[in-house]
Amino acid sequence: MVALFVSVPNLFEGAMPNRQDDVPAAAEQIYTLESMTCRILPGLQAREYIVKSSSNAINLLDVFIWSIAIYLAKSQLYKYAIAAALIWLFAKQKSVRQESILAIRDVGIQVKTTYWGGSSVSRFINRNKIDDVIINEGISFWQIKSYMAILVKDEDKMVVVFEHLLPRLKPVLLRAYQGIRIIIFTQKPNHALDSFYTPKQ
């Protein structure tokens, strides 16, 4: 991805509907927005945004590879059948199932990538190391994509959030961006903003 470095720090100001539901701060709130699920933890001190892959656990490519492996096995070409199965297994383990970002007030941010194989990779960034959270634009597969990134003090490389799944700017990415900034850069919980949500059915 080639970043164009178009910072959009205040895209969401005034973009939220003016709705203020009276929701108890002690209860966990969950809502969904397209492929993203948001959890507002009790006390409004933390938020987690989870973006899930639109791909199914088993797709046409999986069926194709296994069909080849079965054909090779029936043809007694066991070495090639095993090779096809291993290629499928390796590719599946590296396929992203979901990505998430968890922000905790006065503590920091954790970004996590979970793969279909069950493994996961996560990184925690201490609040004192977070310089800013921004939205940039970059080129990916000849398309201009918007992405959220964390600027870390004393580091040249940004930490890209939802790096593999790259959800749409509106409404998914903007909602996560605004929610993370509320937690990280607001000293006290803003109940008026935190109370806007759609309950999960």
Please tell me about this protein's structure.
It is a single chain. With 201 residues, the protein is an alpha+beta fold. It has two domains: 2-53 and 96-194, no CATH class; 60-93. It is 26% helix and 33% strand. The longest helix is centred in the C-terminal third of the chain and has 17 residues, at 169-185.
Secondary structure blueprint with pairings:
Blueprint (H helix, E strand, L loop, with lengths): L1 E2 L25 E5 L2 E5 L5 E7 L7 H15 L3 H16 L2 E9 L3 E8 L4 E7 L3 E11 L2 E10 L6 E3 L7 H17 L5 H4 L7
Antiparallel strand pairs: 1-8, 2-3, 3-4, 4-5, 5-6, 6-7, 8-9, 9-10
Helix pairs in contact: 1-2
InterPro entries: PIG-H, PIGH-H_dom
Protein name: Phosphatidylinositol N-acetylglucosaminyltransferase subunit H conserved domain-containing protein
Pathway: Glycolipid biosynthesis; glycosylphosphatidylinositol-anchor biosynthesis
Q: Count of DSSP E strands?
A: 10
- Return the average pLDDT rounded to an integer: 79
Largest beta-sheet details: 6 strands, antiparallel
For the CA atoms, what is the radius of gyration? 20 Å
**Strands across the major sheet, in which order?**
2-3-4-5-6-7
* SSE ordering: EEEEHHEEEEEEHH
What structural class is derived from the secondary structure elements?
alpha+beta
The fraction of residues assigned to DSSP E strands is 25-35%
Low-confidence stretches: 1-23, 192-201
Domain Phosphatidylinositol N-acetylglucosaminyltransferase subunit H conserved: 100-163
Protein name: Phosphatidylinositol N-acetylglucosaminyltransferase subunit H conserved domain-containing protein
GO biological process, one term: GPI anchor biosynthetic process
Family: Belongs to the PIGH family.
